[in-house]
């Protein structure tokens, strides 16, 4: 699925329509994938349909690759199948060509440790490969035989195989999602509120999860997540978290589960977001979303990221969103206030914290409590039977009990999530029916 190796030399390339190309992010992504960036080639021009960057720049790219002895070219653009073929024809033999989305898939493949994450990566890779298989078929019909640069040898059955694999993976992911939805329903019935951490990669979501969480791990992925070791340092690299990880939050007022999810990244195509939609379901089906941003970044960059996050969440998310301005320990109070005002339209009333130091995390806990769905009050009158005490015990475990009066009957008053109130009424009805 992914290429491995200890010494992979890469030249990065980027084209923009206007202005000066910034290669900071693509360099970070390349390093996250394990490449050693040894050179770069940039171009400012409108996209060339045949070679993306123009014939002259392709020649420059080929020379740079030869001079640096690079084995990989990483484009910070999406390359079409024919552009990949045409550029590959001009590169030294054996040099691999990777565009932005192929690179992201490499990183995802390296980070995928759970079955669900591995399936999502495989699905995304197949969706990436499908139009290239179609391009190979077209080239083969014209008697051109692309044997390199991401296109590979033509196999007329490959297109059918890809579509069959996509269907198989979708079915398996649906089964996994049904299991996870059942687990979410059980957690809600048990009185847990569900909070999801969303935001860009490297914003500090995993660190914030550890800061909010108790020592109790509640997710099957706990042994696979590097941040679950209380003494572990969060890694300063992209996509440390791929699969979701859920932990119980340390809150006095109510039982809360917090889920850390995969980080967003800009300019993701629809097919890639769609491949990871079952991971994003943890966000879509939460009671509250904490949208985490790095307040130390330039305000325009933060604004762009907030827009991308809101666009991604808007289609299916119904939960309230609270923006968390993280990393306040790295900037002064005046800068935080200035950015808070500049971003007020996208992030009304945000909470500024430092997940690393714990500064103002208690304020965030209070905000979480205020934003979560209101509890309902309930008063139940239960018959005095052998089974009643187990129901009373269940209500104690899943609700905030105000009083219990034991007499000829048991009268219990409590506050709880609507789902818990409904479940308690059902249990009470069963007791009454059994005692009649």
TrEMBL record:
Pfam families: GTP-bdg_M, GTP-bdg_N, HflX_C, MMR_HSR1. Its cofactor is Mg(2+). Residues 109-189 form a coiled coil. Keywords: Coiled coil, Cytoplasm, GTP-binding, Magnesium, Metal-binding, Nucleotide-binding. GTP binds at residues 199-206, 260-263, 326-329, 354-356. One of its GO terms (cellular component) is cytoplasm. Monomer. Associates with the 50S ribosomal subunit. Belongs to the TRAFAC class OBG-HflX-like GTPase superfamily. HflX GTPase family. GTPase that associates with the 50S ribosomal subunit and may have a role during protein synthesis or ribosome biogenesis. This is GTPase HflX. The lineage of its organism: Archaea, Methanobacteriati, Methanobacteriota, Stenosarchaea group, Halobacteria.
């Amino acid at each position: 699925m992914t290429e491995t190796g200890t010494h992979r030399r890469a030249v990065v390339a980027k084209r923009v329509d206007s202005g000066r190309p910034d290669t900071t992010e693509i360099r970070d992504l390349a390093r996250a994938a394990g490449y050693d960036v040894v050179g770069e080639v940039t171009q400012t021009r409108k996209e060339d349909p045949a070679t993306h960057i123009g014939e002259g720049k392709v020649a420059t790219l080929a020379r740079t690759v030869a001079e640096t002895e690079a084995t990989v070219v990483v484009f910070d653009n999406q390359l079409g199948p024919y552009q990949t073929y045409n550029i590959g024809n001009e590169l030294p033999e054996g040099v691999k060509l990777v565009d932005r989305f192929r690179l992201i898939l490499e990183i995802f493949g390296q980070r995928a440790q759970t079955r669900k994450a591995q399936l999502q990566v495989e699905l995304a890779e197949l969706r990436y490969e499908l139009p290239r298989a179609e391009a190979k078929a077209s080239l083969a019909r014209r008697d051109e035989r692309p044997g390199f640069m991401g296109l590979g040898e033509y196999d007329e059955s490959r297109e059918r195989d890809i579509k069959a694999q996509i269907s198989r993976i979708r079915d398996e992911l649906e089964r996994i999602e049904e299991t996870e939805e059942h687990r979410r329903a059980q957690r809600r019935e048990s009185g847990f509120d569900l909070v999801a951490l969303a935001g860009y990669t490297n914003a500090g979501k995993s660190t914030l999860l550890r800061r909010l969480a108790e020592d109790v791990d509640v997710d099957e992925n706990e042994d696979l997540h590097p941040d679950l070791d209380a003494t572990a340092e969060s890694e300063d690299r992209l996509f440390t978290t791929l699969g979701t990880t859920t932990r119980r939050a340390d809150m006095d007022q109510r039982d809360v589960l917090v889920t850390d999810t995969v980080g967003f990244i800009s300019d993701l195509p629809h097919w890639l977001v769609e491949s990871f939609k079952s991971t994003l379901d943890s966000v879509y089906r939460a009671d509250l979303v904490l949208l985490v941003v790095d307040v130390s970044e330039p305000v325009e960059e933060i604004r762009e990221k907030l827009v991308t996050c809101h666009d991604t969440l808007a289609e299916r998310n119904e939960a309230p969103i609270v923006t968390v301005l993280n990393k306040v320990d790295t900037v002064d109070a005046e800068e935080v206030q200035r950015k808070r005002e500049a971003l007020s339209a996208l992030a009304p009333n945000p909470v500024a914290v430092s997940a690393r130091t714990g500064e103002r995390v208690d304020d965030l806990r209070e905000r979480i409590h205020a934003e979560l769905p209101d509890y309902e009050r309930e008063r139940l009158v239960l018959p005095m039977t052998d089974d009643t005490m187990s129901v009373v015990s269940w209500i104690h475990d899943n609700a905030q009990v105000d009083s219990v009066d034991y007499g000829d009957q048991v009268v219990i008053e409590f506050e709880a999530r609507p789902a818990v109130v409904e479940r308690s009424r059902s249990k009470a009805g069963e007791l009454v029916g059994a005692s009649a």
